Amino acid sequence: MIGFFIALISGALMSVQGVFNTQVTKSSSIWVANAFVQFTALLVCLAAWLCTDRSSFGALFKVEPKYMLLGGAIGAFITYTVIRSMEMLGPARAVMLIVVAQLLVAYIIELFGWFGVEKQPLEWRKAIGMAIAIVGIVVFKWE
User: Fold this and answer.
1) What residues make up the domain containing 118?
2) What are the tens digits of pLDDT across the range 95-109?
3) Which residue of 60, 100, 117, 142 has the fewest C-beta atoms within 10 A of its own C-beta?
């Protein structure tokens, strides 16, 4: 149950962050804003690390496969694409499309067992749910 609430908080924080970051780009540039976001995230993570587990950074060199270490670089492009989509579409439309894209890609990753995720069988109820979400976007966007 706590995972459910953490996911809700994550979604809310992503929406608020996207709006904040989009506003910051109005006074700077998208890459300056993105660098600031990533830098402040680094500071928060280092502070949390100092206050909590203090596990060794050397453990990162043991991660296999090595491409799994690209999460931070992907994060920079996530920040960029969230800012751009919110600028172009507005927060509600952008977040709706982002969430559906996340669902679709996450489900495909599960179906094929990519990136070390346990392979899951196709479930029609999940596919129907995805189709309903896509129809929801069409209805929401309909003018």
Assistant:
1) 91-143
2) 888 988 998 999 999
3) 142
